[in-house]
Amino acid sequence: MAAFSEAVLEHFRNPRNSGELESATHRVEVTNPVCGDVLQLAAHVEKGKIIEVRFLCRGCTTAIACASWVTERVTGKALADARDVDPEAISAGLGELPEETRHGAILAADAVKALLRKI
What we know:
Layout: H1 6-13, E1 26-31, E2 38-46, E3 49-58, H2 61-74, H3 79-82, H4 87-93, H5 103-118
Antiparallel strand pairs: 1-2, 2-3
């Protein structure tokens, strides 16, 4: 069993920006076919800037923590700045994820990439 960092546990226990976003201008859903985790991101974008992001996630502790961290990272950012959110940045931001839980960071990064492709 993986040992979770304090940052992972904090984001899992107290997820930021979880829930529906009625004012969303863009929505995406990504899935990890291996473990079955599902992540939905909804964003309100205006004039090339991500105004607000919310997530819904059905997945493991790390997937939820990564989704929470990502929403904090991209909220208020220009679209170009959101492009640098990758699995390595997410892992580092959450205290370096062990290899066996890295799939959560990959899922969250994939969701951001999918969102940016839709905009």
